[in-house]
Amino acid sequence: MNRLRYFLAHSRGALLALALFAAMFAVYVAYHPAGLTIDVVSTAANKGVLLALVAMAQTLPILTAGLDLSIGMTFVLANSLASAVVLGSPAETALGVVLVLLASLLCGALNGLIVVFGRLQPIITTLATGSIYFGLALVIRPSPGGDVNEDLADALTYDPVLGVVPPSLLVLLATVVLVWLPLRRSTWGRAVYAAGSAEGAAYMSGLNVDLGKFVAYTFAGLFAGIAGLMLTFMTYAGEANAALGGAYTLNSIASVVIGGTSLFGGAGGAIGSVIGAFVFRTIGDLLFVFDMDALYQPLFIGLVLLVSVSLGSLRLLRIRNRLELFR
Amino acid sequence: MSQILELHGVSKSYGGVHALRATDFECARGRIHAVLGENGAGKSTLMKILAGVVQPDGGVLRLDGREVAFARPAEAIRAGVVCIFQELSLIPDLTVADNICLLDPPRLGFLIDQRAQDRIALDCLARIGVHDIHPRQRLSDLPLSRRQIVEIAKALRLDPKILILDEATSALTAEDVGRVFALLKALREDGVTILYISHRMNEIAELADDCSVFRNGERVGVFRNGEKTHDEIVEMMIGREYVHAYPPKPVRAAPPQPVVEVERLSWPPALRDVSLTVGAGEIVGLGGLDGQGQREFLLALFGVLKGVQGTVRIDGAPVAFSGPAQAKRHPTGVALIPEDRKTEGLMLPMSIRDNLSMAILDRLTRGLVVDRIAEDAAIERAVGQLSIRFGDLDHPVASLSGGNQQKVVMGKWLLTGARVLLLNDPTRGIDVGTKQEIYGLLRRLADDGASILFYSTDYDELIGCCDRVAVFYDGRIVRTLEGDGITEKALVASALNLEPGALQGADDAARQPQEAT
Questions:
Q1: What Cα–Cα distance (Å) separates residue B327 from each residue in B266, B285, B298, B315, B319?
Q2: Nearest to B244 by CA among B28, B408, B465, B66
Q3: Domains defined along chain B, listed by start
Q4: Cα A278 vs. chain centroid, distance in angstroms?
Q5: According to DSSP H, which parts of B302-371 are helical?
Q6: How far is B299 from chain A (nearest CA, A)?
Q7: Is the complex ipTM higher than 0.85?
Q8: Are B386 and B24 in contact (CB under 8 A)?
Q9: What does pTM read for this prediction?
Q10: A205 neighbourhood in chain B, CB within 8 Å
Q11: For FRET with B87, which of A44, B39, B330, B388 sits at 20 to 30 Å CA-CA?
């Protein structure tokens, strides 16, 4: 029982985000003209899953007290590459998927190598590499277009599984269960958390801090690659879109914070970020059902974002020892 | 007797300053070897070399007769040399079990086996005799004294051949110190070699088999425990004539004019109905086991805690400070020397000059700029008053030794001219010489009329320095000892909240103590 209590206490941020999402989604469905239909859920899922995957990617560098500003560009690069290689026979398509994931993994690994061995600040490192990844995307896809294996695309993004479950949600679930959870419970994942929580203490304990950072950036690339693939499956095309990459980078940071992961590193997790991403997406959907002028969207999103991240600071009101404000 | 560890001609210098000068050191298998010396004597450099944190400039290190060199802490740990550092090497966001099993956790395939990890953690904690820490608790939720226990448990889990403890008992409760001592003796029986660094002579006397004394980067003596008296050892350490450690206390005809009057101060659960008066020129000690509310009491007086009940009067007028800035501005002036000089006392990367003038910047400001001439004059005063030893005022304060850093913290607050000084364990982890200077300084300040509240985890200090000692237990003052009544036995008995006489041989305590509430 104690275990459960400590687990709940450690996951407070993610649980708070979950409650927020449940409330917002309930309002959304209640006011939606069509109500709770598969189409409504499926559309919401597809929009949420992309950001959720990119937010999972962003979680890892943030856990090491770093940041990955190239994540959106890796996402765009994967999209552009997928629109060129995920085609043809099942075998060729499978090879294409592997190629895209490998390329994204390499993007992440390059970030990791520079941060670890170059001892450069993650922000400036990934700002530079992000531009490189976008440049590569432009080379692959100078103008929007390309194609993708439609059977696979429809199976993963449109045809509901068992008639009710949006398949993109299952892809997300599979990523969480098959990649994130094992990583979190491995020594690599432990090193990620330790590197962000107290780098000096981890080094003094004989832990390989560099490995933790490298793993964080590399897996971030992998998650962004999965997101890029899913984008291709949803649009049947690739586009080297700088604005899209930039927006996903910034929105992923917002999602991570809404999901209860500390920007100081060491505390939080990717599941919270997934919830945070759905919260973020639902904000836009709420505007739609309330028929608000699209002009007010950015203003409204900003306000809701500010309020929801402020929820995380509510604990400060309960602080009785002012010194804790600085910790 | 086989030597498990031998060092020959090991030297290390930092930027031209010799931390170790071609020194030798050896210790025998299965013995507890105490390492003594002032800060800067070279003992922490020695430990860092053994632990793989720094690499020696020259010399030979032999473990079990084989020559070794550790490039990283991980290599030392793999060779069986495990160090328990004074600055805890724990990860605050991970759980207790995660921390204890940080290196090489039990695994099921690729995954960490959490349940096995819990069992290992409980097992290590049980070996120390501690049962009140849950393996799934997050480390940052534990108080310092518990974290130190986890640090020791973590070292046990690594199965050390050589265990190095660097002031590892400084934050422990008296009860836990006893448990850790029993553990160390049991480890010795199992053939583990223990290097024990401490400033607490009574701990060394109880525990050590052999002692090495370091001074100025060299080992100046090695002897069996008990062969030398405390006075002889201290003289070896400081290399100068050892006068009495504590300045004489004044004899008073009448109780002094009250300056700080605290009535029924509460901040549940840490503080309950604490009432205490400190007069002008008085040093009042706060005693008791660690974590009984002493720190919170000082923080409450300084305005750091929110929601404090009860009244505090300074010079007769009630005060309720909203924080240090207000406490500092009060006409009488209140200063708090914090417990952790590295986070709360100093801005480590900033210069010695900037640190010293930090608390009086408002007074040194003319218009919008700091008056550098007035600042220099103030800093000169502080440096002279505390005899702070430094290379250059513009060097970062982090470059000073621990003792001199603590002097900078005190100097910063003394410059404010505060008449009420709150000291939170100010001598923790600093060398004997600096401690003595601080004792002398406190008495001089008191003689000039300052009112001092002095929390210390070291009973010797309370006995030697204080006019009165208020003993805390579970957030209350259970007894106030005065004058000759401040004895070790009385302090221990009150700290455990025993009735006088209940502790065997506590007769002295029975005669003097007065009930406070």
A1: 19, 21, 12, 13, 9
A2: B465
A3: 3-238 (3.40.50.300), 245-333+419-517 (3.40.50.300), 349-417 (no CATH)
A4: 10
A5: 324-329, 352-357, 361-364
A6: 8
A7: no
A8: no
A9: 0.74
A10: 73, 77, 89-91, 102-103, 154
A11: B388
Tokens read off for B63: 């473990």
Q: How far apart are CA B25 and CA B37, in angstroms?
A: 14
Domains plus CATH for chain A? 10-311 (1.10.3470)
d(CA B503, CA B481): 16
Tokens representing B24 are 């030798």
Distance, in Å, from the CA atom of A49 to the CA atom of A281, rounded to the nearest integer, reads 10
Chain-chain contact of B88 with A267 (C-beta, under 8 angstroms): no
Cis peptide before B500, with omega less than 30 degrees from 0? no
Q: How far is CA B77 from the centre of its chain?
A: 26
pLDDT tens per residue across all 327 residues of chain A: 577 888 887 788 888 888 888 998 888 888 888 777 877 788 888 889 999 999 999 999 999 999 999 999 999 999 999 999 998 889 999 999 999 999 999 999 999 999 999 989 999 999 999 999 999 999 999 989 888 988 898 888 887 777 778 899 999 999 999 999 999 999 899 999 999 988 888 888 888 899 999 999 999 999 999 999 999 999 999 999 999 999 999 999 999 988 888 888 888 899 999 999 998 888 878 887 887 787 887 888 788 778 777 766 766 777 777 777 775
* Angstrom distance (rounded) from CA A120 to CA A143: 34
Structure tokens at A33: 């003209």
Q: How far is B135 from chain A (nearest CA, A)?
A: 9
- Give the orientation angle of helix A2-10 with respect to helix A12-31, to 10 degrees: 70
